[in-house]
Amino acid sequence: MLRARLFSATLLGCLVTVAVPSAAEPAKPGVGKTPPPAPQPAPLASPELSATQDGEDPSRVAHAKSLFEKGASAYAAGRYYEAIEVFLAVDRLYPNAQLSFNIAKAYDNLGSRPGALRSYREYLRRAPDAADKDAITTRVHELETALAERGIQQLSVTSDPSDALVLIDDKPVGLTPWTGETWPGRHRIVVQKAGFADRETVMELDPLKAQEVTLELARAAPTPPPAPAPVAKHDKPWPLTQKMSVLTWATLATGTAALGTAIAVEVASDRKSSGIAPATAFFAGVGTAASAVGGVMLYLDLSDQAGDERHAGLKPHGIVAGYSGKF
Fold first, then answer.
1. Integer Cα distance of 23 and 27 in angstroms
2. Domain check: are 216 and 193 in the same one?
3. In degrees rounded to 5, what are phi and psi of residue 205?
4. pLDDT digits (tens, 9 = 90+) for 57-105
5. Which domain holds residue 282?
6. Cα(295)–Cα(271) distance, rounded to whole angstroms?
7. Which one, of 251, 305, 303, 259, lies nearest residue 284 by Cα?
8. What's the number of domains the chain is made of?
9. Between 97-110 and 58-76, two packed helices, what is the crossing angle to 10 degrees?
10. Nearest to 202 by CA among 179, 169, 227
11. Mapping DSSP to helix (H, G, I), strand (E, B) and coil, where does residue 201 land?
12. CB 228 within 8 A of CB 200
């Protein structure tokens, strides 16, 4: 715990005295027009580390301190892009508003007005009661005016929860929290996140002032399972009956009737002698022959139907219709 607080105090001292130049520091050459220096932020009172205080990992603290010293050296040498990357890495380990201020100063020295404006606004959001709030607000207005002269303005979109897709005028631009520049006027903003209902708003971007839009997402209602498909009623005849011709039906019916008659005659016969009665034999012969002929006719009907289906499959109606006009 003591080591963590010592590191916090050291980190704050570096933030104030090393990374942020004083008003008397000369401008760095080779970076274009250097903006007026903003006053240093007041030290924060006993800032808390982002990880657990009691069980702070000493290697994590040492790594953060090493990174910050690297960023401070890069800033002092005028390697502002490198300093920005390192300060961002330190901020991910131990979030601190003064790191946003140092990043804003680096962007200012690079002449990147959008980057400086974004980071100064972030600093004010994270430290709303900072002692230098008025001076930083003045610098923010200067940068907003500079963007307005180019016909654009800065817009920030945040959501709860974060990491939601941002669409501006139906075009995806990034994930929340997102900050970028666009033209002033009316814009349709939509945020989307899996498992949440889409949230939409229409806003008017002021041409002279950066703005922020915050949207709160609500959990999407669970989608009910699809209803089972209704069971189709068999209103149509049995498929086999659609493939049988009338003659086949008549032949099979004749054979069945003859065989039934033969059985009835034989049962009704009071002959005591062995053998089949002539009438029984006659009807049995007719029934057998008719059934055999009906079976052959049924086979032919089914074969013709299968051939028609194969023919239709090889020659789709669209293709046949396309070629029919050529003959």
1. 10
2. yes
3. -80, 120
4. 788 888 888 999 999 999 999 999 999 999 999 999 989 999 999 999 9
5. 243-268+276-317
6. 33
7. 259
8. 3
9. 20
10. 169
11. strand
12. no
